[in-house]
Design brief:
About 65% of the residues lie in helices and about 0% in strands. With about 450 residues, the protein is mainly alpha-helical. Among the domains are: about 10-45; about 45-130, Serine Threonine Protein Phosphatase 5, Tetratricopeptide repeat (Alpha Horseshoe); about 395-444, no CATH class. Helix 4 (about 90-100) runs parallel beside helix 6, helix 8 packs antiparallel against helix 9 (about 275-290) and helix 12 packs antiparallel against helix 13. Residues about 1-15, about 40-45, about 145-185, about 190-225 and about 235-255 have low confidence and may be disordered.
Length: about 450
Amino acid sequence: MERGVAQFGELAVSEKSWRMSLCCILILLVACTVCIGFIGCRHTQHLSPVEARRQAIDLLTQGERYEAEGEYQLALEFFIQAAEHSPRPAIFYHMGHCYAALGQYERAIPHYQKALSLAPDYALAKYELAQAEYQANRLYAEQPGHRVQRAPASMDSLSQNNQQSDTEPKAEVESRSTPTSSDLESHDAAPGAHVSAAAETKPLDISTETSSPTLSEVSIQKTEQGVPSLEKVKQLLFEREPGSNAVQRYNKQDSMILGSFAYHFQKAESFRKKMMYQEAIGEYEDALKLNPRHVQCHMMLADSSRKLKRFDRAEQHYLAALDLAPDNAESYFKLGNLYLEQKRYPQAVTSYARSVELNPEQCNVVNNLGVVYMKQNEYEKALEAFRHVLVLDPGFANAYLNLGIIFSDVYRDRTKALLYFEKYVELDGPRKDEVRAWMAELKS
């Protein structure tokens, strides 16, 4: 009996020791987890402002990528992390945009408001905030049991102040370390090429007309959850200019109704100017559904597609613009630029030649035609094109640069090459420092 009791006691002691060991291990694991978390938090907290800003920008970039693909929930995870590192207006704007795209307007509103508190002139945030508040009110009004007496009405128009641009922005210039025949100066814009009145617009300026408002008076009370009333939306849209007691006015002919062609085109232009090309493409497509024969809309959609390297789509819309306006020199010029970027040189020559035929005074087009000839090793034709550019505009710097490259790399004529390079530097060309190095090499 004593032997049996001794054995039972040994088992009890062994089980007790095992439990104590297990508890110790668990406590140790918890302690390690807490320490790791504490170290991670301390590491985050001790990031320098520059490091935090860089991390925020990286996270914002990743979030924008998912946002462009329609993965809004995944994008939000990156935006939230970015805001923790560096609370920037653009981050909160994109968070609001994602929530709005998911139909969660009540969650979108405070993020738009936060963006505006950091950047009061953030036009796109102000614009989408008004839309989100309107949609939140509409959803509330449509809830069962909620009765609203209202006639069919639209939001008040947004002003669309148009301005024309004499030139399109120039494309980036290829960089190189030494002069070669494959590296040439080309222009992505034609001087004197006017765009339509709706193509270039000022930032959104929310205003109203005092004489005949179009928004019907609707009494929608703010709910306990804090959904804003329609009056608040009207106040936002009818805000006054700083330092002015008068409400800003607009012309009826410039007005823009939500869901109209002008609405989508204006929004697309806002996205394009912010280099948000994916969003711009979507709005241009919506605009074309309402007006499929709008030449400039086809052109802008093609430009945005080209920025995203969607060359087939860009070509489709440039050609659509030409079907609608066969004598548009700018459309041929941009189509030529697309072909040049794709190294489709024969098509580029045809497009540039047609553009010059329609408007012979375009220096940029003639310059790009010379670039294509150089790509095809047709140097005599290239020389003729660049010299013709200088006849049209003796101060056209890139023509001197391209002539210098031909005489330096192809004809090995140092004297003429230096002459043209010196003229390029004298005209303060953007690559003057690089060209000075080439000149030093030629002189040595």
